[in-house]
Amino acid sequence: MSPLSILRRHRVAALLGAALIISPVVVSFAQNAGNAGLSNVVATTQTPVAGITAPNGSFAPVVATAKPAVVTVTTVMKAQPGAPGDGSPFDGNSPFDQYFQQFFGDQGIPMPKTPPQQQSPRQEALGSGFIVGSDGTIVTNNHVIDGATSIKVTLDDGTELPAKLVGHDAKNDLAVLKVKASKLLPTVKWGDSDKLMTGDQVLAIGNPFGIGTTVTAGIVSARGRDLHSGPFDDFIQIDAPINHGNSGGPLVDVNGNVIGIDTAIYSPNGGSVGVGFAIPSNQAQKVVAKLMKGGDIEYGYLGVQIQPVTPDVASAIGLDHPGGALVAQVTDGSPAAKAGIETGDVITGFAGQEIRDPKDLSRAVAEVAPGNKETLNVWRNGKAMQISADVGRNADDQKTASNDEGGKPSAGEGLRVPSLGLGLTDLTPDIREQLNLADNQRGAVVERVNPDKAASAAGIEPGDVIVAVDRTPVKSARQANQAIAEAGRSGRKSVLLLVDRGDAQIFVAVPFAAG
Fold first, then answer.
1. How, if at all, do strands 304-308 and 325-330 pair?
2. Residues near 249 by Cβ (< 8 Å), separated by ≥ 6?
3. How confident is the model at residue 83, as a pLDDT?
4. Which of 128, 399, 458, 483 could form a disulfide with 206 if both were Cys (CB 3.0 to 4.6 A apart)?
5. In Å, what is the CA distance from 228 to each residue of 175, 232, 282, 407?
6. How far apart are CA 441 and CA 428, in angstroms?
7. Is 31 left (phi over 0), alpha (psi -120 to 50) or beta?
8. DSSP, res 162
9. What is the CB neighbour count within 10 angstroms for residue 325?
10. What is the annotated localization of this protein (predicted)?
11. How high does pLDDT run on average in the chain?
12. Which residue has the higher pLDDT, 254 or 2?
């Protein structure tokens, strides 16, 4: 099992089979440390300003409010357990595993390999959920029910009911279920996650490892975590212990209102280490409202590859402060291309919203209904301007925005740019073949990078192809060298290089002072 995985637990035929996955140490901790963990939290907490926590610090009133609406979701799955590519959180091939490997691998955290599992004609997955409508409307994670042939919900009182899938959205990892009961069901209310602050007390309620509904307490460790799983990443990080089976369960505040949906954990050993992630309620509530109406959710599409505006980039393009989304590439035929968006533009506003970074733009565009005409605030050539664009439909194979940096090829010899620490060479037929470049590709290939100079610190790599300097296209190493020298003589602190790297284009600002 990868260290960071979705909180779903697979079972083979019965609970005994699942016990092979759960180490005895983890089960023992879950059984013996619950009360001690809660007392430690209570001993260090402060009485909330507005909440229903009892004067003695007990969370019992909160639990009494929320727990009756928490359910267990059990699904029978199509795939065989452990089969390559079955998408389980244990096979290393699920989308979340890939995103988490990228996110934590960049920080040097090892990703242990998954031991092989025996195949079985029956496979079940276990997760959690919560009731938002007394008529039986239930919210959970999409990955809990993904690939299910049948879904069963167990209420807090032990009642088991078949559930129907009303709608689901993989991009937000949310799903809505519906059950028919003989009575009105208890519900839990949505809270306001925008008011949630780092350090606030939270409770996680769910069914970890299938041992039964469990409550754990902690605080908000951080806000706005991006796990690179999609354009909507804005996770709440918590230290309340959550484990496999908690997925889809509610994260509640001291008023018993849902302020998040427990979704993922980082775990090098398969159990909780105090690093969990939840989808904010304000994000989830909007999606759930759409899913309750049934059908698919359509997302807006602009068609730009974007990257952050660093202080060096801001200096190179004349912005008085870093901010916005720098357009590194515009997709041919996309709404952005038709609207006149250009490579090198900085998008600072979209549809009336301030764009502070690329993630802001990705979310803002994705939330707009396809076909809407929206206004973009753009910084171009030292001037602010506005551009109108017809937002397109984001198909499954399209990205609203991307900041991938591509591959890392190698190249030959050529001119040297002493002030930046670069060795440049022209594009020859041999180099084109080596780098798999098109015949019409123009630019200067980076042959060497001095590790002690500014270009290396800025992220320029051997094999990069510099196609523009300060937004002026260059066709050769000599042109690139001359353009960089001119930028240095202009008195600016940095030069802006447009680089082709693999299948992506990125802007890199290289400061002269460090060169």
1. antiparallel
2. 70, 127, 128, 129, 130, 204, 205, 206, 207, 242, 261, 262
3. 44
4. 128
5. 20, 9, 20, 18
6. 11
7. alpha
8. E
9. 28
10. Periplasm
11. 77
12. 254
Q: How far apart are CA 345 and CA 379, in angstroms?
A: 6
User: In terms of DSSP bridges, do strands 4-6 and 258-266 run parallel, antiparallel, or are they unpaired?
Assistant: antiparallel
- DSSP letter at 190 equals B
User: What are the structure tokens assigned to 5, written together?
Assistant: 């995985």
Distance of CA 257 to the CA centre of its chain: 24
The Cα 209–Cα 311 span in angstroms is 47
pTM: 0.61
CA distance 225 to 77: 30
Give DSSP secondary structure letters for 69-89: GEEEEEEEESSPTT-TTS--T
Q: Which residues lie closer than 8 Å to 47 by C-beta, 6 or more apart?
A: 53, 55, 57
Active-site residue (options: 173, 426, 464, 500) = 173
* Catalytic (active site) residue 173: yes
Buried b (16+ CB within 10 A) or exposed e, 47-73: eeeebebeeeeebeebbebbbbbbbbb
Query: Which residues neighbour 386 within 8 Å (Cβ) at sequence distance 6 or greater?
Result: 375, 376, 377, 378
Question: Cα 451 from chain centroid?
Answer: 32
Catalytic residue among 10, 143, 168, 244: 143
Residue 111 CB neighbours (<10 A): 16
Q: How confident is the model at residue 236 (pLDDT cuts 50, 70, 90)?
A: very high
Which amino acid makes up residue 451? P
C-alpha to C-alpha distance for 232 and 284, rounded to whole angstroms:
10
- pLDDT, tens digit, 9 for 90 and up, residues 197-226: 999 999 999 999 889 999 999 999 999 887
Report whether pLDDT(230) > 70: no
Number of helical (H) and strand (E) elements in the chain, helices listed first: 13, 30
Cα–Cα distance measured from residue 432 to residue 437, given in angstroms and rounded to the nearest whole number = 5
**Residues 504, 299: Cα–Cα separation, whole Å:** 23
- Please check whether residue 166 is in contact with residue 153, taking contact to mean a CB–CB distance below 8 angstroms: no
Compute how many other C-beta atoms are within 10 angstroms of the C-beta atom of residue 369.
11
Angle between helices 24-32 and 34-44 (to 10 degrees): 50
As a whole-number percent, the residues of the chain with pLDDT over 70 amount to 72
Candidate list 247, 419, 456, 494, residue with the active-site label: 247
Average pLDDT over residues 373-396: 88
Per-residue DSSP letter, 208: G
CB 177 within 8 Å of CB 36: no
